[in-house]
Write a structure and sequence with these properties.
The complex is a heterodimer of chains A (about 950) and B (about 90). Chain A is an alpha+beta fold and about 950 residues long. Chain A has seven domains: about 1-150, Ubiquitin-like (UB roll) (Roll); about 165-280 and about 405-465, 3-Layer(bba) Sandwich (FAD/NAD(P)-binding domain), CATH 3.50.50; about 295-400, FAD/NAD(P)-binding domain (3-Layer(bba) Sandwich), CATH 3.50.50; about 490-570, Arc Repressor Mutant, subunit A; about 595-640 and about 740-820, Gyrase A, domain 2 (2-Layer Sandwich); about 645-735, Aminomethyltransferase beta-barrel domains (Alpha-Beta Plaits), CATH 3.30.70.1400; about 840-855 and about 865-970, Elongation Factor Tu (Ef-tu), domain 3 (Beta Barrel), CATH 2.40.30. In chain A, strands 8, 9, 10, 11, 12, 13 and 26 form a seven-stranded mixed beta sheet that branches. In chain A, strands 38-39-40-37-31-41 form a six-stranded mixed beta sheet, sandwiched between helices. Chain A has a six-stranded antiparallel beta barrel with strand order 42-45-44-43-46-47. Chain A is elongated, with a radius of gyration of 37 Å. Chain B is mainly β and about 90 residues long. Chain B has a four-stranded antiparallel beta sheet with strand order 3-4-5-6, with no helix packed on it. Chain B has a two-stranded antiparallel sheet with strand order 1-2. Chain B starts with a strand and ends in a 10-residue tail after the last strand. Classes of the chains: A alpha+beta (about 950), B mainly beta (about 90).
Amino acid sequence: MSTPRRIGPGLLVDPARPLPFEFDGRTLHGLGGDTLASALLANGVRLIGRSFKYHRPRGIVSCGAEETCALVDVLTPHGRRPNQLATTLPLTAHLRARSQNRWPSLRWDLLSLNDRLSRFLPAGFYYKTFMAPGWAWERIYEPLIRRAAGLGRLDPPYAASHAATAESVHAHADVLVVGAGAAGLAAAWALGRAGARVVLAEQDVRLGGGALLEPEARPWCDRLAADLAHMGHVRCLTRTAVLGAYGHGVFAAREALPDGPGPSERLWVLRVRRLVLATGAVERLVAVAGNDRPGVMLAGAALAYLRRYGVVPGQRLAWFLNNDQAYAGAMALKEAGVDCSVIDVRRESAAMDAARTCGVPVHAGSRITGIRGGRTVRAIELATASGTRRSLAVDGVLLSGGHSPAIGLATQLGARPVWHEGAGAFVAPLDPAQGASVGSATGCEGLASCAREGFVAARRLAPDLGLADVAELPGGLPAEGTRTPAQALWEVPGRGKAFVDLQNDVTTEDVRLAAREGYTDVEHMKRYTTHGMGTDQGRIGGLLGSAVLAAARGVAVAEVGVPQARPYLQPTAFATLAGAEVGAHYRPRRRLPLQAWHHAAGATFVNTGLWQRPLVYGGAGWAPVLEEARAVRNGVGLTDVSTLGKIDVRGADAARFLDFIYANAFSSLPVGRARYGLMLREDGMLLDDGTTSRLGPEHFVVTTTTVNAAAVLEHLEFQLQAHCPGWEVHLSDVGEDWAQFALAGPRARAVLAALLPETDVGPEALPFMGVTTFGFRDAPLRLFRISFSGELAYELAIPVRHAESLWLALLAAGGPHGLRPYGLDALNTLRIEKGHVTSAELNGNTSAEDLGMGRLLKREGDFVGATFARRSAAAAPRLQLVGVRPEGAARLRNGMHLVRESAAADSLGYITSSTPCTVQAGWFGLALLTDGRACRGQRLLGVSPLHAERVPLEVVSPHFHDPDNRRVRV
Amino acid sequence: MLRIPCPWCGLRDEVEFRYRGAMLARPAAAAGIEAFTRFVYARANPAGWHTEWWLHVAGCRRLLIVRRHTLTHAIESARDALDAPAEPAP
């Protein structure tokens, strides 16, 4: 068990807890507290994967969530979990990880040939090359390209296993502090002490941020963290990345939970009053040839690996930098016994002198012009200030092109990026009404200065939150020395590829090509080259790409800008967003009061909105459906229509309101009667239909179609409150309070008489469209003589707790009459034959006139949609409701288009509903046909090119069954 | 996500509401097809402050009149529709 690159203790690792793990089938050893990346580095593993496009060898570039290259597959018992960031993935015992995008192996990758061919694979290559023949794109080119390019691949069994479970938590707070470095800690501490409810979100495993890397600052960090942990109103979330800002103080964050039983992630939806952005800064890459070789790393990452895990990236390191901050790493690694030399583009600086004192050789005013090597770094090409060029053998290169404030969240909130000369990068100050940006996110340098900014922001926000002044911060942060400003360092000309985006394999040449081809706007360049479009969103190279573009255009970087960062700021799995809402929990289920009975009776269920409705009892195919429907036509049937929307309308102005809502009159409806009503939208199209009954002078009950129940209630509330001010009307949704059953068929009256021997249900006492209410076993029972089937029929409504009692009583009373329960399919068959419309015909584009119900519209008075419904007919012929009857036994399909034999390409309309017939042979359908009523008797074709079907048919009346309504009125 | 300060229920998420568009007064019944065409189809669509209807369907079911800035989504006020008359169509 040898880990050659672990040279000492680290802040986060526990030497007493060795952990074996596996990478590409090789067993290696790490320590508790390691990430996969630190454990791999400790073992001297550098080659982690192959790149997206050129299949170049790639290693670990960073020490955190900004990682761009070290993406691996994790093999779990449920399957492969792709694209896991090695730099944040906690090492667990027997973790099995695998490299990505290589074949047959990581060391010998066949498609690394792409790198040799790269001259022919510039940005936009696919679009320019794979032009013809057109059919080949989908069948040949795209599959090949997809196979060759890309990183991890989704493993469908893993995705389907829902092994990575997430839970969602909603939380409210006064302040969200993003980032727990010196600035964030100070702000959270000060606000927490003053009594604010604070959520402190830190993506690292521990609070402290950059201060963790400075041993002298740790006691201060630990003290503030301990204080925060004791404040009950402060929630410190570590391993929590804020994913996006959604306005009005709403944020999403993802917390990675410790390995073990239970969910693996927690999605936080945070609602806060103010925001403190202490998101820090991310070190930038330098565009130098070979800057992607395994062994090239960001300077700050080397320091982090040493301090956090006791790991060094190599033994002979070259540091190429432009700023004082990056020297800390070189000096610390030198002290740890690593051979370090610094190449600084600046001629002099304070840090340079300090480094020399420590024994670190510094090449001032020099540059690295190339990094050589293959699967690992072997040497650098050095161009010194005096103009000499030489090669220097090294086994690692640490780059620092400066630090870019992390402004993604601020820009999502509308903050505009502005150039900060000192940082050599963009900052995005937050609108003071929203909160504050503090610390290195504003370009501030030095722990004490950053902490001060956090404190000042807290003091400013306190009055807004109704808090007393905040207590002074504890001291203890190290004093800051003088710093020499950074000098711009973007690209060093040299031979070979210099990358600006390591994840998407975008080079400086690609950026220049984009500029030459006219993609000079940074957002266009981004899309043309895919620069910054990877999961890392260009954190370490984004600004570098802008700088290369700026040079190509001959303008300042400040003028070019950076692409807008969008949610999600960290790669986020769909499983995280879905949380527990998967499988049966994807959406709620609405169950009928008699669900258990329907189930026991062998019903097949169908989803109608959220409802599950019995489709048919027993068996598949049309035979059982037709049996049920024929039972209604010839005897009697019973069906559960409890899913209909039911709205109680009461009040002195209830009748007047219904006159306004419906296109036909309701104030004239006597108590104890029902009427079919048409509801229009203001544009004259049909919104919904249904039966409305008057139960008392000021009491109506409106029924709606199942699917429109919520929409109609909303429509009624809106019209009442927006356009009928002062009217005394009360609307109540009683849809779930009442169960409703339809008893239909020539023998329905006999069944009813058996059920209610004391009551007169004869045609005089209860005529067609009559309504009555009486007691049934101590429950109010509403009896409506209405029909949707075309037969003599009644609907019975009863409070849901009595639903089963009534249903069973109906079955018992109907037994001697051969009563059969029927499902939604039979109900549909019956209504289609009768020419009744449902949502298939009420599709939002049909008017009452189109459906042949123009005569129902009130001639006088106002109602919603009146003006448009009454205007003179439109010039163009409209689709009108007709019936269609195919020849012989040919079957119809919903969606079939209607065409003339002579012009089969011109659709005249389409079939909306169709069914085999109950009492005659063959099929019947309802259709919307251009100028349909004038086409009665014509012969057309019903065609479905998708199914290669052509059915000759005749246009007939939509009222196929009992057009004179004799059967419903008996 | 918008958060709307419902005068009856407090600060609530947008998902509890249904947007009902610009607050416009319905023309008189006899106003004619042109007035109704404006009412149904014509919208001022300002880049700035906008007075609009939101129905709190998953709350008090009251219709609110909300003043919202269409560029910043800032909400200035939310009142019950009873408290203010609607504006004529543009």
